[in-house]
Design goal:
single chain; about 350 residues; alpha/beta; six-stranded parallel sheet; six-stranded mixed sheet; about 30% helix; globular; binds 3-amino-D-alanine; aspartate-semialdehyde dehydrogenase activity; EC 1.2.1.11
């Protein structure tokens, strides 16, 4: 008997991608149950070509469920993850509720798959999409050259802020489309784009050096997630990480400019060879022919795309590179589904 899967939060931007992904997976899951807020209960969504009715989030909704993928706000995961786990459900949580909990593994199947079994709370956390957009490449290079420091700037898509982010950006772009002047006078966008939605400043024709909430020392929650999650996933508690997270007017796909320092010297050719052979990575690095990853080439694909690989001009142990990853796929739904499938194999191995 194939394990029963529940998708909690099936109606959100990530949940929608989760259902698409599940529809491409054969012989992994038996029943797939869709759970969402009472507001969405009764909706019918298509999974594996069949219409499935969404049921309201409740304790009974987890009866008979073996694995549950959660994509809900932190506070909902914090409340309902333990309730599901107490019923014997293995919870794969995409929220930030448990990511830094020492009793909850933070898993990227290409980097630390063995951590899936280390789940004393019955909960496994999925990293933040910004971390996930670069960590598969960093994990591959770390294994060979010993990572010691990361300095990154992210260029994050609007869909990282959910459907509200997408709707806000598209609404603002419609407002500025056709204007021959907007974006050329101080503050003219703020006066004309209307609703800022989940962003603290206009996003269309702009960049916003902010994502998440304010933390100590002027750091954003997003920047501290990149730092703390990279350390946990790579098992490097003293890894030096400095992140600057920026929102850009892209619908979906995060990008990061990465400066990486290693213990050992790393030539560009060596880095390319490691990345070319690494699972889950596409090398796209031929600037002479205009080939480097851009969000629009990467959106809708599963891998991490890597390009612009250069040796630092100051130290042979340092390289620069540019990575893109679809923040709704590998950044959220795909990685969560890959973790859930690792758990599903435990059931089929029984
Ligand atoms: C964002 N990484 O982009 C955060 C959450 N998805 O807003």
């Amino acid at each position: 008997k194939l394990p029963t899967l529940a998708v909690v939060g099936a109606t959100g931007a990530v949940g929608t991608v989760m259902l698409d992904l599940l529809s491409t997976r054969e012989n992994v899951w038996g029943e797939i149950r869709l759970i969402a807020s009472a507001r969405s209960a009764g909706k019918r969504l298509t999974v594996r070509g069949e219409q499935v009715e969404v049921v309201a989030l409740s304790e009974d909704a987890f009866d008979g469920v073996d694995v549950a993928m959660f994509d809900v706000p932190d506070e909902v995961s914090a409340e309902w993850g333990p309730i599901a786990a107490a019923k014997g459900v293995v919870v794969v949580d995409n929220s930030g509720a448990f990511r830094m909990d020492p009793e909850v593994p933070l898993v990227v199947p290409e980097v630390n798959p063995g951590q899936v079994r280390n789940r004393p709370k019955g909960i496994i956390s999925n990293p933040n999409c910004t971390t996930l957009s670069m960590i598969v490449a960093m994990g591959a290079l770390h294994a060979e050259f010993g990572l010691t420091s990361l300095i990154v700037a992210s260029y994050q898509a609007a869909s990282g802020a959910g459907q509200a982010g997408i709707d806000t950006l598209r609404g603002q772009l419609a407002k500025v489309a056709g204007s021959p002047t907007l974006g050329s006078q101080p503050g003219d966008l703020r006066r004309s784009v209307g609703d800022l939605g989940p962003f603290p400043a206009p996003l269309a024709l702009n960049v916003v050096p902010w994502a998440g909430s304010l933390k100590d020392g002027g750091w954003s929650s997003e920047e501290l997630k990149v730092r703390n999650e990279s350390r946990k996933i790579l098992g490097l508690p003293n890894l030096k990480v400095s992140a600057t997270c920026v929102r850009v007017p892209v619908i979906t796909t995060h990008s990061l400019a990465v400066h990486a320092v290693f213990e050992r010297e790393i030539a560009v050719a060596q880095a390319r060879e490691v990345l070319r052979d690494a699972p889950g990575i596409v090398l796209c690095d031929d600037p002479a022919n205009g080939e480097f990853p851009t969000p629009n080439d990467v959106v809708g694909t599963d891998p991490t795309w890597v390009g612009r690989i250069r040796s630092s001009l100051d130290d042979p142990r340092e390289i620069e590179l540019f990575v893109c990853g679809d923040n709704l796929r590998k950044g959220a739904a795909l990685n969560t589904a890959q973790i859930a499938e690792l758990v599903a194999r435990e059931f089929s191995a029984r």
